[in-house]
């Protein structure tokens, strides 16, 4: 599974790269489509960082282009964010109709987009009861769109420290992702510490 950000990758070019990787892997490629959440990262890489719902509108168009060039013999598209003209992509991906598209998100915009245009909903680890409610919600959204059942994935992490208390402190530190959080401000130091 390769994480891709629509704000960082032109959709038709990414579709071509992904189709080639899908052939190399004999149809085992899947993508995790991330609608960008970290403004500072976008600035670091010279990428425009739009407001929340605009990022999901961009992702929606990005997915339209990606799917179109993967499935149509010749594809054209003209939208607010992307435009392609008579695009021919060959070879098409091995997996039909396309590699599995995963995405995650908590907002209404995110969940509706994922239910409508992706194949799988990915979640971060949480209690089984909390995850069950998310799965039920996404199943209901998918049914509302008249689409087949989607897949679900849960990210799992292992925190290894000398003591349980240290592990719990680290968990609290890394799960506080609000941009105002001290852990968020310390991301460069955290990355340096984890590679040491």
Write the layout of secondary structure elements.
Elements: E1 2-4, H1 11-24, E2 30-33, H2 39-44, H3 52-71, E3 75-78, E4 83-87, E5 100-103, H4 108-117, E6 120-124, H5 128-144, E7 151-155, H6 164-175, H7 182-185, H8 187-195
Parallel strand pairs: 1-2, 2-5, 5-6, 6-7
Antiparallel strand pairs: 3-4
Characteristic terms for this protein:
single chain, 196 residues, alpha/beta, two-stranded antiparallel sheet, 47% helix, globular
The strand order across the widest sheet is 1-2-5-6-7
Instruction: Tell me roughly what share of residues is in helical segments.
Output: 40-55%
**Percent strand:** 15-25%
- Unreliable segments of 5+ consecutive residues: 190-196
SS elements, strand count = 7
Characterize the structure shown:
With 196 residues, the protein is α/β, with parallel strands linked by helices. It has helices at residues 11-24, 39-44, 52-71, 108-117, 128-144, 164-175, 182-185, 187-195; strands at residues 2-4, 30-33, 75-78, 83-87, 100-103, 120-124, 151-155. Strands 1-2-5-6-7 form a 5-stranded parallel sheet, with helices on one face. A two-stranded antiparallel ribbon has the order 3-4. β3 (75-78) and β4 (83-87) form a beta hairpin. α1 packs across α3 and α4 (108-117) packs across α5. The longest helix has 20 residues, at 52-71. The protein is globular, with a radius of gyration of 19 Å. The two termini are 26 Å apart. Mean pLDDT is 89; it is low at 190-196.
């Amino acid at each position: 599974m390769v994480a891709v950000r629509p704000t960082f990758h032109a959709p038709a070019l990414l579709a071509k790269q992904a189709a080639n990787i899908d052939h190399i892997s004999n149809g085992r490629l899947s993508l995790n489509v991330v609608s960008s959440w970290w403004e500072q990262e976008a600035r670091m890489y010279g990428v425009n960082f739009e407001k929340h719902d605009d990022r999901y509108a961009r992702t929606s168009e990005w997915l339209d282009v990606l799917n179109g060039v993967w499935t149509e013999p010749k594809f054209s598209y003209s939208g607010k964010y992307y435009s392609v003209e008579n695009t021919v992509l060959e070879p098409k991906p091995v997996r039909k109709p396309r590699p599995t598209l995963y995405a995650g998100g908590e907002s209404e915009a995110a969940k509706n987009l994922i239910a409508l245009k992706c194949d799988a909903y990915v979640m971060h680890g949480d209690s089984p009861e909390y995850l069950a409610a998310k799965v039920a919600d996404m199943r209901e959204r998918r049914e509302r769109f008249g689409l087949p059942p989607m897949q679900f994935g849960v990210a799992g992490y292992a925190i290894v420290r000398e003591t349980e208390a240290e592990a719990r402190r680290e968990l609290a530190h890394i799960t506080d992702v609000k941009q105002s959080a001290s852990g968020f401000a310390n991301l460069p130091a955290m990355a340096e510490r984890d590679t040491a």
